[in-house]
Amino acid sequence: MRVNFTVNGRPQEADDVWEGESLLYVLRERLGLPGSKNACEQGECGSCTVRLDGVPVCSCLVAAGQAEGREVVTVEGLADFAKQRAEHGGCATGACGTEGTSLQDARRWSARPQDSQTGEGGELAPVQQAFIDAGAVQCGFCTPGLLVAADEMLERNPSPTDADIREALSGNLCRCTGYEKILDAVRLAAARQAELAEGV
Amino acid sequence: MDFLRPASWEEALAAKAEHPTAVPIAGGTDVMVEINFDHRRPEYLLDLNRIGELSQWEVGEDTVRLGASVPYSQIMEHLRAELPGLALASHTVASPQIRNRGGVGGNLGTASPAGDAHPALLAAGAEVEAESVRGSRRIPIDDFYTGVKRNALAPDELIRAVHIKKADGPQQYSKVGTRNAMVIAVCAFGIALHPETRTVRTGIGSAAPTPIRATAAEEFLAAALDEGGFWDSRKIITPSVAKQFADLAAGAANPIDDVRGTASYRRHAVGIMARRTLGWTWESYRGAGRGTEGVA
Ligand SMILES: Cc1cc2nc3c(=O)[nH]c(=O)nc-3n(C[C@H](O)[C@H](O)[C@H](O)COP(=O)(O)OP(=O)(O)OC[C@H]3O[C@@H](n4cnc5c(N)ncnc54)[C@H](O)[C@@H]3O)c2cc1C
Ligand code: FES
Ligand code: FES
């Protein structure tokens, strides 16, 4: 079957989709967006987290056909998504923005290792930069899902308590970091966001 | 495989009548796991996501009519006052991502003895609104669970909504697991005080082939509270009464040994949870009473 939906602000069409296929599979294997990771395919790890009409979900548990006509944001589109949100006063669901990330740009996305220390030249969302700065990335397999989940929490709850952060990230497993640096990264992103909001 | 995408409830019923083996998919948090792991290859998937009314709820005078697909996160956010037991139980389900998709209709469809909605529904009192092209019926929650992962739905029926009694007193939900998130219950216990009828209802999860009520414990407690005049005096419940309630609740359990826990541990834990949740709800009943009497 064919599935039409919006990915990172741009309409996309996936063909020859098997009816039992997951949204995760369509993103990775049919649209060439491997940012969302496949680690468990059973909702346990959160590494496949994307936003579906703004809501964080495990894309491995969404049937591809259920995404028909809906808006998906993946980690590849997170930088643009965050930028639009900042420009449009909080609205970045794609419904109010028209730019989005083209599939080509999304496919080309990389953290640009040469720039990753400073983030210069790399198009990163603030939460991505915070993960780099706090040293919250080791193997990186869990990172895309954590970024999408953390970004959504910071959108909803700009000054989260530690308990809020833990709860928001409770569906994302990391086998490497022991989570402390991840918590640091989210606290850092929240602090920077607050500074920006205060116009400092 | 065929993917059926009815745009309305009527279309969904017609599709289910035409293809009774079609597997409804709402949040997909049970169905997709089975498909991803090749445990299930249904001929038809029947997507319910386009039927907007299934994600809505109405708060009536005595009950909440909860659409089958209302996700747990919405129950937690919007129905905490009306359905405190179910809101607490919802909060224990899996993770934010899963709670954003999964809901009570899917929990009832799967009818796992470990499903977290079940003890809360049993304790609050609820009816499942099931419908097919043949007509609509209300299945009392006590008659809904018919066996391990079996329910009372006919092959052509779909769940449209669940009618849950609004809380008329404190409710609690307790669950044993190894973490606060992403945990299938080792066992669970729900309790609802119903001061209006001077009854107490319970629900036990993961400690019998189906979710069950601890009816002997409920009856004993109702009689003891009545005889002792506790509903009016709002006295602290005598420890021996609480203990007897806990023992009867543990006795209602009929658990098995499995990877998550042993039968004897489960029985023990059910008793502990029964005593604790009774204590918590009764304390808040007493507190509410003192509040209205202005004693603070
Ligand atoms: C990682 C993970 C953790 C989990 N943890 C928990 C947990 O802690 N507690 C818990 O209770 N559950 C848990 N679950 C199971 C699952 O999330 C719940 O059972 C959830 O309520 C299912 O809802 P859903 O909408 O996703 O159902 P779906 O997967 O869409 O459907 C489930 C079943 O119900 C049927 N169905 C759905 N809607 C209807 C309808 N309207 N009429 C008739 N049949 C219908 C489907 O055909 C299917 O058989 C977990 C699942 C995962 C993947
Ligand atoms: S791959 Fe989807 S939750 Fe693990
Ligand atoms: S960094 Fe390796 S799993 Fe998280």
Automatic annotation (TrEMBL), chain A:
Residues 1-78 form the 2Fe-2S ferredoxin-type domain. Keywords: 2Fe-2S, Iron, Iron-sulfur, Metal-binding, Oxidoreductase. InterPro entries: 2Fe-2S-bd, 2Fe-2S-bd_dom_sf, 2Fe-2S_ferredoxin-like_sf, 2Fe-2S_ferredoxin-type, 2Fe2S_fd_BS, Beta-grasp_dom_sf, Diverse_Oxidoreductases. It comes from the Bacteria. CDD domains: fer2. Signal peptide: none annotated. GO terms for molecular function: 2 iron, 2 sulfur cluster binding; metal ion binding; oxidoreductase activity. Pfam families: Fer2, Fer2_2. PANTHER family: OXIDOREDUCTASE WITH IRON-SULFUR SUBUNIT (PTHR44379), XANTHINE DEHYDROGENASE IRON-SULFUR-BINDING SUBUNIT XDHC-RELATED (PTHR44379:SF8). This is Oxidoreductase. It comes from Streptomyces longispororuber.
UniProtKB/TrEMBL annotation, chain B:
It holds the Pfam family FAD_binding_5. One of its GO terms (molecular function) is FAD binding. The keyword Ligase does not apply. It comes from the Bacteria. The keyword Oxidoreductase applies. Gene3D superfamilies: 3.30.465.10, CO dehydrogenase flavoprotein, C-terminal domain (3.30.390.50), Uridine Diphospho-n-acetylenolpyruvylglucosamine Reductase, domain 2 (3.30.43.10). Keywords: FAD, Flavoprotein, Oxidoreductase. Residues 1-169 form the FAD-binding PCMH-type domain. PROSITE patterns: FAD_PCMH (PS51387). This is Carbon monoxide dehydrogenase. It comes from Streptomyces longispororuber.
